[in-house]
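To the structural biology subgroup,

Please find below the input and predicted structure for SgcJ/EcaC family oxidoreductase, which we are adding to the shared reference set this quarter. The sequence is reproduced verbatim from the submission form. If anyone notices a discrepancy with their own records, reply to this email rather than editing the shared folder directly, so we keep one authoritative version.
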Amino acid sequence: MSEHADPEETRIKALLETWADAVRQHDVPAILAHHEPDMVMFDLPPPLQCKGIEAYEQTWDLFFPYHKRGTAFDIQELAVTAGQDVAFAVAIMRCGPNSSSNPADKEGFLFRLTVGLRKVDGDWRIAHEHHSVPAND
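Predicted structure (tokenized):
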């Protein structure tokens, strides 16, 4: 990390690392802790979008059967751009391996993450998440 790192960007990076660790541990309250009640998410599997924290929470029930607790949900690259009260982050992450017995799943898979944040009462809050993988030809 640069000695001239923006303190807001550093705070956001720490928040996202905490979120990723909560996912690895399947700790739903910690996953939700920094999300806005009216957040929106676009995810890899259906539904196409979920609106609101309750819908977001339900998506984890769909994810956890395919992700072994403690396995990778790791940020491999992360860039943050922070303004005074809004920010966004883009990341490449590794997920897996999943619970499948398929040898091709041994290393998991890479996916893209885009997060939109807003500052509320001095704290960064996740207002938008978008997870994606490259489309296959």
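Summary notes: Helices lie at 7-25, 28-32, 53-63. Residues 59 and 98 are 16 Å apart (CA to CA).

Regards,
Lab coordination
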